[in-house]
């Protein structure tokens, strides 16, 4: 990556710089991370410490990858907890969807559509969060509302 930053490559260089910094933070505190919300605070010190890291002047507040961001700020314990939450939520949604397929109630079609929509949104966000951090805009709250609407027990 010896090329100067330009309109064609800035997004790649920016992300690589932030990913490298996140991995460096994680290597300093692998189990519990550097602390929730500390990515932006520590970013300038991290890039100053290691001359091999790509440099990007703006810390952004996140690592442009939710998984690396959680790993840096909360360590392996935090990342494992985060992934476990989504595995359990996906299993719960899938089980509810299968139960709805066997039900003849009038609201079943609505609940099936809602379940498929929530599954699609969570799948999309999970994949897109590899290159960004979309949960900073309150999407957790929206997903929580959708899950609450879907839970008719």
Following the backbone from N to C, one meets helices and strands in this order, namely HHHHH
Q: Largest sheet, described in full? A: none
- Multimerization state: single chain
Count of discrete alpha- or pi-helical segments spanning 4 or more residues: 5
In short:
This protein is an all-alpha fold.
Architecture overview:
The protein is an all-alpha fold. It has helices at 10-28, 39-49, 66-101, 108-128, 139-150. It has one domain. 65% of the residues lie in helices and 0% in strands. The radius of gyration is 19 Å and the shape is elongated.
Helix-strand layout with pairing:
Layout (H helix, E strand, L loop, with lengths): L9 H19 L10 H11 L16 H36 L6 H21 L10 H12 L3
Helix pairs in contact: 1-2, 1-3, 3-4, 4-5
Keywords, please?
mainly alpha, elongated, 153 residues
């Amino acid at each position: 990556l010896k090329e100067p930053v330009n309109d064609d490559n800035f997004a790649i260089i920016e992300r690589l710089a932030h990913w490298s910094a996140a991995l460096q933070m994680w290597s300093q505190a692998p189990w519990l991370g550097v602390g929730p919300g500390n990515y932006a605070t520590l970013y300038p010190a991290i890039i100053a410490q290691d001359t091999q890291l790509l440099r990007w002047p703006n810390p952004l507040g996140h690592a442009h990858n939710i998984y690396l961001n959680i790993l840096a700020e909360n360590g392996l314990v935090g990342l494992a907890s985060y992934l476990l939450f989504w595995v359990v939520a996906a299993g719960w949604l899938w089980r509810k969807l299968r139960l709805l397929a066997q039900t003849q109630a009038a609201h079943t079609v609505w609940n099936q559509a809602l379940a498929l929509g929530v599954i699609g949104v969570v799948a999309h966000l999970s994949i897109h969060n590899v290159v960004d951090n979309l949960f900073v805009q309150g999407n957790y709250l929206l997903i929580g509302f959708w899950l609450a609407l879907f839970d008719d027990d």
